[in-house]
Amino acid sequence: MRKLLKPTLAFAAIVASAMWILSAPETLSDGAEFARLGDVEKGRDVFYAGGCASCHAAPKAEGDAKLVLTGGRKFPSAFGTFYAPNISPDSKFGIGNWTALDLANAMVKGVSPGGQHYYPAFPYTSYSRMELADIVDLHAFLNTLPSSNEINREHELPLPTRFRRALGLWKLLYLDNDVVSGDFSRGQYLVEGLGHCAECHTPRTILGGLKSASWMSGAPLSEGEGRVPNITPHADGLAHWSIDDLTEYLESGFTPDFDSASGVMVDVIENTSQLSDEDRLAIATYLKALTPIPKP
């Protein structure tokens, strides 16, 4: 037994060291993309396409109050309960001291300015497909919004999930910027990247990663009973919707069955209604071109 103990401990040390190295946060280099001033008007479009206010505005905020990104919204999950942070331009309680590079590292790499992994309740697995220029513009727009001195609420997590370093290994499995559709179009960019639609409409593995084989086919509703619908052009999903139907829904919230958006989709429609007609058409065209998949 003693003869086996030393090599066993040595092997365990090697494995632990390798896992520590592999789980290290990876960040972007400061390049020319971050040297320019962001375009506020373009940043506004990115803001609405990305649905920032839907998660980061105060719960039940309405109208202009949704532009105060005070945080606090609750996100229950199988891994614990997460709370959206304050991302207003307050220098103490928000992200007012962040550079455009800091914001890019958060959105593309899931890493905080302090070098910690973010939990994927923040959908950086989709934002990783974003263009850095869009993040620079978003940073400029966020700095024009009202400040909030609301203190961030701590996540409520069981002990195993509090160890953030392990997220580095999770990212090796699930964080990449490969497109799913294989067609790098404007619609693909808006749906797979900025709009992060798959984060709700795609089922997840036991580890919380997206099941790409069931892309957009619907998933359990994380915030209560029910399901997020299938939005592939399958009979279970959008087969009977035309591109015009989808485009109208993204602007007005009205379905071809004379119904209207409800639940969390009300927030989504508030965002997509702010987009251009061309962008709504691009989203609709992408969705209708997806592989039809039955709901799980």
| Number of helical regions | 12
The neighbouring-strand order within the major sheet is 1-2
Note poorly predicted spans: none
Q: Report the portion of residues in β strands.
A: under 5%
Task: Please outline the major beta sheet.
Answer: 2 strands, antiparallel
Helix content: 25-40%
Please give the number of β-strands: 4
Order of SSEs: HHHEEHHHHHHEEHHH
The domain count comes to 2
N- to C-terminal distance: 50 Å
Q: Rough shape?
A: globular
Radius of gyration: 20 Å
- Structural class comes to mainly alpha
Mean pLDDT: 92
List its salient traits.
two-stranded antiparallel sheet; two-stranded antiparallel ribbon; mainly alpha; 2 domains; 296 residues; 12 helices
What are the SSEs and their pairings?
Elements: H1 2-22, H2 40-49, H3 52-56, E1 74-77, E2 80-83, H4 100-109, H5 124-127, H6 132-142, H7 167-174, H8 186-194, H9 198-201, E3 219-220, E4 227-228, H10 243-252, H11 265-272, H12 277-288
Antiparallel strand pairs: 1-2, 3-4
Helix pairs in contact: 2-6, 4-6, 8-12, 10-11, 10-12
Can you put this structure into words, describing what you see?
It contains twelve helices and four strands; from the N terminus they run αααββααααααββααα. With 296 residues, the protein is mostly helical. Helices cover 38% and strands 4% of the residues. Strands 1-2 form a two-stranded antiparallel ribbon. Strands 3-4 form a two-stranded antiparallel ribbon. The protein folds into two domains: 28-177; 178-296. The protein starts with a helix and ends in an 8-residue tail after the last helix. It has helices spanning 2-22, 40-49, 52-56, 100-109, 124-127, 132-142, 167-174, 186-194, 198-201, 243-252, 265-272, 277-288, and strands spanning 74-77, 80-83, 219-220, 227-228.
